[in-house]
Amino acid sequence: MSPPDDPHTWLNEHGDYLYRYAMSRLHNDELAQDMLQETLLAGWKGYARFAGQSSIRTWLVGILKHKIIDYIRHEIRGRNLTEAVESDPTSAFFNANGGWSESPDAWKENPEDLYSNEQFQKVLESCIDKLPEKQKIVFRMRDIVGEDTPTVCKCCDITSTHLHVLLHRARLSLRKCLNTHWFEKGTHS
Amino acid sequence: MKQACHYASRLASDSLDRPLSLWERLRLKLHLSMCSNCRNCDNNLKLMRQINTLIRKNHYGQLRLSEQQRQQLHKALDQHDNAIH
User: How far apart are CA A133 and CA A57, in angstroms?
Assistant: First the structure.
């Protein structure tokens, strides 16, 4: 059997997969479709360079991934987001001795129940929305999209240390917000 | 050990993104064994991560191209084909 080597076949066989990949990162229908189209065309143009060490799908995802990174990187640069590394907002959660200024509660509910609870999803979304812009971007990419560290760093033009600082800030703020608006309020059943 | 809980929260967060060094692992483990506040925080962060993973798998796992999008894409590929031949 000859390998499927035209973009129509690729679209039929891998279109949904590539579309999901693009949508989870771009959250925009039209944009995801454009990226998919560009990827198929770029793949077709560069097909001679596809040596077949990987599957067609893996190869196409690689092309799409680069296109998305370029796009996001450009977007983020254009917005000129800055966040000082020097002043540490997480200090607010701790007292002068480095202990918690407010004790974190034990959260009793399990992830599946929380996930399927629409009210909780709303609270989670609004808590994420309150994060400072740069933290929000890295948090979404890393924890919701599940992008690896080097990719997030590349998209945002930051070092891995800076990324860890931002994620620490985002997660502690989010933890506090969920605690206040959900877990502290007791049972929701 | 000043700033102990603050530092432990950073290690707990970092452990979701990178392998901790042996020294960091020991330090975090020792601190968590003595501090219920930080144990709660560590578990909270892990729970948040689990929920986010569920969102990713369930929400985006279902997405498909619509028939209309598929047709548009096929058409765009055809146009490109005609342009080079």
Answer: 33
Angstrom distance (rounded) from CA A47 to CA A151: 25
pLDDT score of B1: 45
CB A64 within 8 Å of CB A56: no
User: Quick check: A187 pLDDT over 80?
Assistant: no
Q: Find residues 65-84 of chain B whose CB sits inside 8 Å of chain A.
A: 65, 69-70, 72-74, 76-77, 80
Fold for the domain defined by A89-185? Arc Repressor Mutant, subunit A (1.10.10)
User: Cβ contact (<8 Å) for A94 and B10?
Assistant: no
Give me the pLDDT at residue B67, please.
92
**pLDDT value for A68:** 94
Half-sphere exposure of B13 (CA within 13 A, CB side): 24
Global ipTM: 0.85
- Nearest beta carbon to residue B48 from set A29, A97, A174: A174
A1, pLDDT greater than 50: no
Task: Name the maximum alpha-carbon separation found in chain A.
Answer: 70
What is the predicted pLDDT for the residue at B20?
97
**pLDDT tens, position by position, B65-75:** 999 999 999 99
CA–CA distances in Å: residue A152 to residues A83, A98, A135, A160: 16, 30, 12, 9
| The CATH number of the domain covering residues in A7-79 | 1.10.1740
CB-closest option in B14, B16, B63 to A23: B63
